[in-house]
């Protein structure tokens, strides 16, 4: 686009959409490993590569707190795992069901579409204030003022590169650039959301409440991860390459410090061990199957049928 080789409006928009897939690929296959310390054996290399998250409009330290500290430690535990949403989307039976949740099967995809745009505009600022109150910034050896300055500066630079520069260079109305920018984030946000949610918020995984068991984890850590995490699409190597091996989410949650290129090799061992001890190992054959399960779960959580199903299964278990 910047070289002027393509100037057609639809061609420009197609390239913005392609950048959206590129953003999601970078986030899934490069940034994710680096911020887990798994991209390289060298700590400094991981730190620098992890900063590529700035190109997706996010702040690496916030991501590490939400993902590494909260999500990986408290997977599918309401009140701790921020990946379960903020209340507008009901992603766990332990979250209060509101009247509008019965429509979430309709509006959730639209929220997924704006996920990274919200991340760029507002989420990082909200998180940094929240993490300050929870005293979580110390997990990243950061102060609040330093973090706030880095976030603000990174947002300004991001806007200059991805909005101001194309408007200044491209021989097109500024509105085309803005539509392209929104399209890029729509593609990226939807891609990231579906990959991650299909690994945890599906009909076959288990959910937990922070208030149960005195706020402690019910199971051994490894058992908890197996019960709250699922795999999908093991048969597609190209798909696995593009999403950074995150179709092997079980292996990733058990061994987050191992680079994703090894997940395929260790998955057989994990599955055999789980079956040996009678622990669930959930794996959908295809990504489409995982998507059906995810949206089926959202639908049942929204209309209350999930609870009725669980009550029925509990009565049958007691009767037997």
UniProtKB/TrEMBL annotation:
Domain Fatty acid desaturase: 10-283
InterPro entries: FA_desaturase_dom, Fatty_acid_desaturase
UniProt xrefs under PANTHER family: DELTA(5) FATTY ACID DESATURASE C-RELATED, FATTY ACID DESATURASE 2
Source organism (scientific name): Algivirga pacifica
Pfam families: FA_desaturase
Membrane-spanning residues: 12-31, 103-121, 142-170, 176-196
Taxon lineage: Bacteria, Pseudomonadati, Bacteroidota, Cytophagia, Cytophagales
Protein name: Acyl-CoA desaturase
Keywords on record: Membrane, Transmembrane, Transmembrane helix
């Amino acid at each position: 686009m910047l070289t002027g080789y393509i100037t057609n409006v639809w061609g420009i928009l197609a390239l913005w959409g392609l950048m959206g897939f590129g953003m999601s690929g970078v986030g899934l296959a490069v940034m994710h490993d680096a911020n887990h310390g798994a991209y390289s054996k060298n700590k400094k290399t991981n730190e620098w590569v992890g900063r590529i998250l700035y190109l997706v409009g996010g702040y690496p330290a916030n991501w590490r707190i939400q993902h590494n500290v909260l999500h990986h430690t408290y997977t599918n535990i309401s009140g701790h795992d921020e990946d379960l949403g903020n209340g507008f989307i009901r992603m766990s039976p332990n979250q209060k069901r509101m009247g509008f949740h019965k429509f979430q099967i309709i509006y959730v995809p639209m929220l997924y579409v704006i996920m990274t745009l919200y991340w760029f505009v507002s989420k990082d600022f909200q998180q940094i204030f929240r993490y300050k109150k929870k005293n979580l910034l110390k997990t990243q050896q950061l102060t609040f003022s330093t973090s706030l300055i880095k976030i603000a500066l990174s947002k300004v630079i991001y806007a200059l590169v991805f909005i101001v520069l194309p408007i200044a260079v491209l021989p097109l109305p500024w509105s085309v650039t803005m539509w392209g920018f929104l399209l890029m984030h729509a593609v990226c946000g939807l891609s990231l959301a579906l990959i991650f949610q299909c690994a945890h918020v599906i009909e076959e995984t288990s959910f937990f409440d922070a208030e149960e068991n005195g706020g402690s984890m019910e199971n051994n850590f490894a058992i908890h991860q197996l019960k709250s995490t699922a795999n999908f699409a093991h048969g597609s190597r190209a798909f696995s390459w593009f999403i950074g091996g995150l179709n092997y989410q079980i292996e990733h949650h058990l061994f987050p410090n191992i680079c994703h290129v090894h997940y395929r090799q260790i998955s057989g061992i994990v599955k055999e061990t789980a079956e040996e001890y009678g622990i669930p190992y959930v794996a959908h054959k295809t990504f489409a199957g995982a998507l059906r399960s995810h949206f089926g779960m959202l639908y049942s959580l929204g209309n209350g049928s999930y609870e009725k199903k669980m009550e029925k299964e509990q009565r049958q278990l007691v009767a037997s």
